[in-house]
Write a structure and sequence with these properties.
It is a single chain. The chain has about 180 residues and is mostly helical. The chain has a single domain, classed as Up-down Bundle (AhpD-like), CATH 1.20.1290.10. Helices cover about 75% and strands about 0% of the residues. It is built from ten helices and no strands. Helix 2 runs antiparallel to helix 10. The longest helix is centred in the C-terminal third of the chain and has 36 residues.
């Protein structure tokens, strides 16, 4: 499994996604760790086993074991935080804004990699999961940490393309099942 395998699994109508995967795999505004951690965290957030397997296989050549674990941790903690903080943000009851979350989030304080990298991966996952409150918080930390807009945008572009690849593969699989069922009937 690799990015090339993933690209070959995409249908012809998703040619733009294939091209975007190729260009993003060579993105130069991010360090290799930032780049491949963004790919891994985004793949996990996109929840497609084929995408996760292909991207993690490719990422292992570019990430230390600690960085791979941290990217997975970013996806895990944001899966929880994005739901909680999206609720807080969307609820019309302002009382929730003053209540402590009372959720363990120790990995954010000690992610095992550079804090800026972990924040970047958390931002990518938050974009996929649609949590505006988390997007603002992570983007603020990244700017404070010195990351430029171009690098932040690159991670979000990775998140967008990886998610689109996952959605396309799932949709294509369902379409194929429908076609097979209709032909069998």
């Amino acid at each position: 499994m690799s990015i090339e395998t993933l690209k070959s699994a995409l249908p012809d109508y998703a040619r733009d996604l294939k091209l975007n995967l190729s260009s993003l795999a060579g993105e130069e505004t991010l360090t290799a760790q930032q780049l491949w951690g963004s790919f891994v965290a985004s793949a996990i957030a996109s929840r497609n086993p084929l995408v996760i397997e292909a991207i993690e296989t490719e990422a292992k050549a570019h990430l230390s074991a600690e960085a791979l674990t941290a990217a997975r941790a970013a996806a895990a903690i944001m899966a929880m935080n994005n739901i909680y903080y999206r609720f807080v943000h969307l609820s019309s009851n302002q009382e929730y804004h003053t209540m402590p979350a009372r959720l363990r989030m120790n990995v954010i304080g000690k992610p095992g990699v550079d804090k800026v990298d972990f924040e970047l991966w958390s931002l990518a996952v938050s974009a996929i999961n649609g949590c505006g409150m988390c997007i603002d918080a992570h983007e603020h930390e990244l700017r404070k940490g010195g990351l430029k807009s171009e690098a932040i945008q690159a991670a979000i572009r990775i998140a967008a393309v990886v998610h689109a690849v996952a959605v396309t593969l799932e949709g294509d699989a369902v379409a194929q099942q429908i076609t097979n069922a209709q032909e069998a009937a």
